[in-house]
Amino acid sequence: MSNEPVPVTGVCEIALEMADLEAGERFYAGLLGLPVVETWSDRGGAIWLMAGDQTRIGLWRPQLGLGGGRGGVHVHYAMHLPAAAYQAAVDRLRAESRQQLRGIYRCDS
User: Fold this and answer.
1) Is-above-0.90 flag for pTM?
2) Which element (helix H / strand E) includes 22?
3) Residue 55's domain spans which residues?
4) Cβ atoms of 59 and 18 closer than 8 Å
């Protein structure tokens, strides 16, 4: 077995659970401007958006997962954006936020 890392080049897709899909769409498509690429009416409904060239974000209603497992207890993900666009994005989020924002940070990697 090799100790070489798997050559991962990015995130393909992530699914986020939310009870209010319309609010999620307003945030991701409306505020952040991510394009909706697909919607599902089955399995409780889902909205798929593109974040960049390769990453799909799925917004799902809460449901039991494989084997009856419960997901969505804790989800974290981060988006890459050009350093020059960082402050404008933070300002935009803070201007529209109805809740205290936590966890907006800049990664120098």
Assistant:
1) no
2) helix 21-25
3) 13-64+73-96
4) yes
